[in-house]
Structures are given as structure tokens and as C-alpha cells.
Amino acid sequence: MRSRLLLSAFLALLLFGCGGNSSGGGNQPPPPPTPAVVAGQWEFVAVSTLNPGATYPDTLVEANLSQTDTTVSAGTAATSLVPFYSNQGGYGVELPVQNVCGGAGETISATVSGQNFSFTLIEAGPSGTYTVTGTATVNSNGQVMTGTYTSAAACGFPNDAGNLTGTLIASISGTYLITFSDGSTSNATVTEDANHNVTVSGIAQGQAYALTGEAVGGGVMVSGDIPEFGQDAYYGAYLTNQLVGLFPVVNNISTAQGDFIFVNSEGNIGLVQPQ
User: Fold this and answer.
1) Angle 179-184-187 from CA coordinates, rounded to 5°
2) Which residues contact 263 (CB under 8 A, 6 or more apart)?
3) pLDDT of the chain along its 275 residues, tens only?
4) Per the count of CB atoms within 10 A, which of 30, 125, 249, 267 is most buried?
């Protein structure tokens, strides 16, 4: 009888132990989702829905994003903002000289959880700090983000909100044809190295020229002397599918994804097309 009682107690302990382990295993939290890989050169098109009538209602956010696990960032040297407008009456692009608060640049800090991208963009300067926050969803191939942004009033600018579309930009190295606003053209070779340093070499008005600078996202800021236009700073913005819809024709030429709008400090606009 005693041996039967001991055996029954032993079996009960085994059953209790197995049940306890099974219950504990079922309560384990699921592993966190694998973060999307977003490191690279990105061009974001921010289109205001709150202030569509502003002089420059839209902005290009250019960024070379760095990523460690779920943490993403871009410092002042890897971020630039380019306000622009486009409508039936024309278009305009502002060269990235200083931020809205009178400072020298912007920074981006962000996190990625699965395909969800959450960011904060800060512009700081003598007149204060302007903060933009937003979220976006990264598509399955990691090459497009879509989302929204909001910002509170600061530095003399009103509060804002709108839609955001980001496109991953490949290296811009290659050969191009530049058509300037006066109808003249120039063949050019563009080289971008691993540190995003850019060299543009070509011939205009029968004279060779060379421009140097850097690429941030889908934006290229270079300087040098182009015959007829002289010593100047030049900015090129990569045309995504969305921007082709906003800038369908430049200098009487239909645009396509992969083209660039090319402007100098006086606002003269050229179209740069890959060959």
C-alpha cells in the first residue's frame, strides 16, 4: 500500500511539473519583428495638406540614413531640406542654404520596428528649434516609404502637416545630357564615390568644366564654373515618379524618373537626363 501511495505521489509531481512548464512556455512574449533595412540615400517628398497655399508648400528631405539594428540617424552633413513649389503657373526650387531657424542644417533620428519607420527631424538656429515628427511604412522591398508628418509652429513658421513619400536612391554615377533654360546643351559625366563625394565634368560652349561637391539623398550640391553661367553653386534634385507628376515638363522636355532638375543660385533651371 505504501509503495502504491509513493508511486501515485511521484506521478502527480511529474504531471504537475509538465503542466507548469507547458503553461510557462505558452506565456513567453513573441520575438520582436525584424527591422526593415533602410540604410542608404533617401529622397522624401513632403507635401503639405495644411498649408497648400504657401509660397513654398512642399519640401524635399534629402538624407543619407545610417542604421544600427532598430536605430536610424542622419547628422547635419547627411541631411538637407529643399523647399519647392509646382503648379500650372510654373515652379521654383530653393537652394539649401540655411534652415528655417537660421541655422546650418538639420538632423534626423528614427527607429524601425518591422516595416514601421518613426522619425524626428530637428532644425535648430538663432531663432529657435523647429521639430517635425512622423511615421511611414516601408514597402516589402525596402525601396519606398509612405506616411505622414506634423510640425508645431516655430521660428516664424506656422504649424504644418502633410503626406510623405520616400524613395531609395541608387548611385548617380553615369553619363548625362544637360539641357539649360536657354536651350543650350552639355554632355556631362558624373562620378559619386563611397563617401558621396561628387564630380561633374563636361563641355559647354566648346569649353571644358568641372564641378565638385557631394550627394545627400537624391540631392546633389556642386560648385564650379560652367561657361555662360559662370562660377556658381548648382543643385540637382533626383526626379522620383512622384516628382515627375509635379514637374512633367522642364525646358519643353518631358521628364522621366531618374532625371534631375538642375538649378543655380539665380534660379535658372536645367534638365539633366541619364544617357
Assistant:
1) 60
2) 93, 95, 234, 235, 236, 269, 270
3) 445 544 454 444 444 454 444 445 568 888 888 999 999 999 999 999 998 878 788 999 999 999 999 999 999 999 999 999 887 667 888 887 788 899 989 999 999 999 999 999 999 999 999 999 999 999 999 999 999 999 999 999 999 999 999 999 999 999 999 999 888 999 999 999 999 999 999 999 899 999 999 999 999 999 999 988 889 999 999 999 999 999 999 988 999 999 999 998 888 889 999 99
4) 125
CATH superfamily, region 40-169: Quinohemoprotein amine dehydrogenase alpha subunit, domain 2 (2.40.128.120)
Helix (H, G, I), strand (E, B) or coil at 18: helix
Among 43, 38, 218, smallest CA distance to 118 is for: 38
Name the architecture of domain 174-274.
Answer: Beta Barrel (2.40)
- Listed in sequence order, the residues at least 6 apart from 179 whose beta carbon sits closer than 8 Å to its beta carbon are 185, 251, 253, 270, 271, 273
Whether the domain at 40-169 and the domain at 174-274 fall into the same CATH topology: yes
Residue from 36, 41, 38 nearest 194 by CA = 41
60 and 219 Cβ atoms separated by less than 8 Å: yes
* Inter-residue contact 265 to 96 (CB < 8 Å): no
Q: Domain map of the chain by residue range? A: 40-169, 174-274
Q: How far is CA 205 from the centre of its chain?
A: 35
Q: Which amino acid is at 50?
A: L
In 90-248, alpha helices (H)? 241-246
